[in-house]
Amino acid sequence: MLGAGDCTDEVAEKILSAAVNAQLNASIRWKAKSVRKDGRPSQLEGNVPVRSDLPDRFDLVFRIKVDLAWEYTLILRHLPSGANIRRLDVRGTHRDRTGEDYICRTHKHRWSETRGNKDVYEPTDIRHEATVPLDASLTALDEEYRRVLLDFMGECNISIGDGYNWVSPPAPPPTLPLEGLEEYP
Question: Has residue 102 got a pLDDT over 70?
Fold first, then answer.
């Protein structure tokens, strides 16, 4: 039996339909998702609310591993339940619940009540290089991030509203060298 915050196939289908007028009306807000001992972020997460005619709340989530900036994830999340209605793993690596290995392969997860995120498929609508780019820094991949986000929004029938502006993920501060330290006898 579903509770008040649970997602249903019907809700998932509605948010993915063009009929609910889903839009991004704000810019992505980036924050450090996890931080190393030296204070530098190891993962960045961007969030932006998805506005629609539905009473349920949804967010678009963008996660980037700082040291592996070429491997990132986009999620359309149903906030009351935490269900990832759609998830795109760009050049992602993991073992699928069915036992298939995805090694540096772009793939999507489709959510359903009965199967959760077990439905995985390789998309043909994501404009990016399948291989890891030579320059795989956050700055170098900015245009790809923007383009892939638009492609993902297209599948989810999310349009760009008046308040949306692309905000690049922040480049982490460089590691400072320890200069001027002297040993005392």
Answer: no
